[in-house]
Design brief:
With 369 residues, the protein is an alpha/beta fold. The protein contains eight helices and 22 strands. Strands 11, 12, 13, 14, 16, 19 and 21 form a seven-stranded mixed β-sheet that branches. A five-stranded parallel β-sheet has the order 2-1-3-4-5, with helices on both faces. A five-stranded antiparallel β-sheet has the order 18-17-20-15-22, with no helix packed on it. Strand 17 and strand 18 form a beta hairpin. Helix 5 runs parallel beside helix 7, helix 5 packs across helix 8 and helix 7 packs across helix 8. The termini are far apart.
């Protein structure tokens, strides 16, 4: 199947082509403003589907909206008619198409051209009035507030929030691309004469800024905000895509003593915290118990003896674990517990606790196993 993608170097175009390649579509004609214009004739002769993504979103000259959004659409459809190619055409319009501004009028004019083309030729058309789309590879300081906020906040630059109560309607790029693939396969989602991306998100501008700042602050504080909702996971992934390439990593603090070291990794108000330690041979950690805090121990290098004793009893339970055979040991409340490096190499252990350590209320009571 031969697919023509106009606007191939744009935000949506790059994401679409990457996913089409993932799905095995290899014959893709990529057309953008730098492509030899004569190739449009060749591509419109041979293509079996058209993704018309090219357009102008922002410009100082209102005339450029008509040239970029309407005139090129007319040229594209004219070439398809000349070549008697009635292949389906999918076009990205905008929710602005029903508004009386230069950009909106140009998008509405492009829609009308497509609908007229459909009536004249019988070719299938798919018109998507997209809201603000966000995700990786979107251009900051252009027409995406999410891209701009992510880019600036990642670089300690100021952002402007004129009215924090402004409501935004957003759509994630992967949801858009998934819907476009359904359209390619003849399973598009329609609402009256338009096609729609079925998953959208609404958020206030101030809330959006707060979320992105919380992602940035999670690196020094280690406290991860909730990623329970799809939108939050998508936004977090988007934020990380805007980090500077020399700033992907960040250092953790190591608490070092004669036993080895211990370092906190991730904290979450909803899901506790993860930390890890290195323990020298023969050294024992722990010998304490908790009222409410529970933990999981996972040895990932070396050999260890994990011992537990229910307080006010004498029976000692022992679990022999090692990094070759991964085995998680749960530490219930009311059991004093310890972990001893029983091998000859350093012991590396991963720990999870169901709450973030609070030095003012540590819930830790020392008692030998």
């Amino acid at each position: 199947m031969k697919i023509l993608v106009t606007g191939a170097n744009g935000f949506i175009g790059k994401n679409l082509i990457a996913e089409l390649n993932n799905k095995g579509y290899q014959e893709i004609f990529k057309f953008n403003r730098d492509t030899d214009p004569s190739l449009l004739d060749t591509y419109t002769k041979e293509c079996d589907f058209v993704f018309h993504l090219a357009g102008v979103n922002r410009h100082q000259d209102d005339v450029e909206f008509i040239k970029g959004n309407c005139d090129f659409t007319s040229e594209l459809l004219g070439k398809l008619k000349e070549n008697n190619n009635k292949t389906p055409v999918l076009i990205t319009s905008s929710t602005q198409a029903n508004k009386d501004n230069p950009y909106g009028r140009s998008k509405k004019a492009a829609e009308d051209l497509l609908l007229s083309y459909e009536r004249e030729t019988g070719a299938k058309t798919l018109i998507y009035r997209l809201p603000n789309v966000f995700g990786k590879w979107s251009r900051p300081n252009y027409n995406s507030v999410v891209a701009t906020f992510c880019y600036n906040i990642a670089r300690n630059l100021n952002i402007q929030v004129h009215n924090p109560n402004t409501e935004l309607t957003l759509c994630y790029i992967d949801e858009v691309i998934a819907e476009f693939v359904r359209g390619l396969e003849g399973n598009e989602t329609r609402y009256q004469e338009f096609c729609v991306v079925p998953v959208i998100h609404k958020i206030l501008l101030g809330e959006l800024a707060e979320k992105i700042y919380s992602f940035k602050n999670s690196r020094p504080t280690l406290i991860m905000p909730s990623l329970e909702k799809d939108f939050d996971r998508q936004l977090y992934s988007t934020f990380l895509s805007y980090l500077e390439e020399d700033n992907f990593s960040y250092k953790l603090n190591k608490n070092v003593d004669d036993r080895g070291w211990l370092s906190e990794f991730i904290k979450s108000k909803a899901n506790g915290q993860i930390f890890l330690s290195k323990t020298r041979p023969g050294i024992t950690r722990g010998n304490h118990w908790h009222h409410t805090k529970v933990e999981k121990f996972l040895v990932i290098q070396g050999e260890a003896a994990i011992r537990l004793r229910k307080i006010n009893t004498e029976e000692v339970l022992e679990y022999r674990v090692n990094g070759k055979n991964l085995e998680v040991v749960d530490i219930p409340v009311g059991f004093t517990h310890s972990i001893t490096n029983s091998g000859k190499e350093d012991l590396i252990t991963l720990f999870w606790a169901n709450e973030i350590f609070n030095p003012e209320k540590p819930d830790t009571y020392f008692l030998g196993v």
